[in-house]
């Protein structure tokens, strides 16, 4: 008898059956993002950071000194692993199955997130391209600004439901909608 493994997203029960047309303020949950942890070896921090910035199909997310998340929504795990293995002075681990990526965008996104994080999200303080680990309510997440009114939140899979519910509650007054991304 062959064993068949099915991928079930951590937010299936939260989103499926509740999807609506996207409002201007919208939360889009990535179905299968590729997310690797990258740690620079001592003395290699700058070289690893520059190599991550130059890697194709990879968006580096700063986590702390000598630590990043390498995120891709376009390349597969093997492709990203191949690019990362070419970076000298770094150790990498695939975290894709243990993380959930949510993208939130819209004209009220900063107001929604301000209810959940204790960080100044003004573009002059947290510009597009910036990312950092922080508390989202009671959960440690990585928050990245991906555009003027767009952010990505990466959370541990086991806390994804809590983060999702908090976001939807904080976005209720702004008619926040949610759906899975295509694919």
From TrEMBL:
Species assigned in the record: Rhizobium soli
Per UniProt, which keywords does this protein have?
A: Oxidoreductase
Does this entry carry the keyword Transmembrane?
no
What's the Enzyme Commission number for this chain? Answer: 1.5.3.1
- The identity of this protein, by name, is Sarcosine oxidase subunit gamma
Report the superkingdom from the record: Bacteria
One GO MF annotation is: sarcosine oxidase activity
Keyword presence, Oxidoreductase: yes
Report the Gene3D superfamilies cross-referenced here: Probable tRNA modification gtpase trme, domain 1 (3.30.1360.120)
List the coiled-coil residues.
none
